[in-house]
Design brief:
The chain has three helices and three strands, in the order ββααβα. It has one domain: 2-Layer Sandwich (GMP Synthetase, Chain A, domain 3), CATH 3.30.300. InterPro entries: KH_dom-like_a/b, KH_dom_type_2, KH_sf_prok-type.
């Protein structure tokens, strides 16, 4: 996951992208009707709020980047 942007206003807004290697993984992460991604986002948002003590809006997106785990450029881009 990469944090794309953080906006500090009344409510802290975090835009993040979850990178997957294959389109088939997107279906798994989204779950039926997007419910699995919603649960992931809700849990992450609550944990961030506990740590920061502030209300947070978490905006998650999924992107496919084939074989990113084997690509040195991608690894560097993701902070590895």
């Amino acid at each position: 996951m990469v944090i794309d942007e953080i906006q500090e206003k009344n409510i802290k807004t975090i835009f993040a992208t979850l990178f997957l290697e294959r389109p088939s993984q997107r279906i798994i992460v989204l779950g039926p009707g997007g419910e699995r991604l919603k649960k992931i986002g809700t849990k992450a948002r609550r944990e961030i709020e506990l740590v920061t003590g502030k209300q947070v809006f978490l905006n998650l997106h999924i992107s496919i980047e084939k074989e990113w785990q084997r690509n040195p450029r991608s690894l560097e881009k993701f902070g590895f």
